[in-house]
Amino acid sequence: MKRNLITAFLALFLFSFSAKAQINSGWEQVFLTVSGGNILDGVEAWYQQDTCDGANVVYIRFVNTNPYSAQVSWNDGIFTQDEKWDWKLGTSDRKSVVIPAQVGIKGECTPENALTIKLSDFGIALSEFKRYGVQNFTVLGL
Description:
Blueprint: H1 2-23, E1 28-29, E2 39-40, E3 43-52, E4 55-64, E5 70-80, E6 85-87, E7 95-99, E8 104-106, E9 116-118, E10 129-141
Antiparallel strand pairs: 1-3, 2-3, 3-4, 4-8, 4-9, 5-6, 5-7, 5-10
């Protein structure tokens, strides 16, 4: 009886982990909290390294779990293989998007997309890229 319970619990745990991995296949968490969480004020943040027109890029995906639209603002950062952050912290570097209630948006291979970051804008090659991060992340309910 006890063995069956442990087996069932283990199967449930593995299934839930597998289902979440399939939903977010290729997407990594953007750490928004000190504890490494990727949700802040009802908005989840994810990133994915990819290519766009031959350029190495990072796509960002935000999911607004709130029952209202939210304006999200942030500054981009790249963490390199030599364990250094490179931040775009200037006022003109600050990005902002509005996300409708209960909707997810993500970067695409289109010109001037706030959710698509070119690694070349940070002066690094793909071999130097380790992870993407944000700083000064804010969520404003609309």
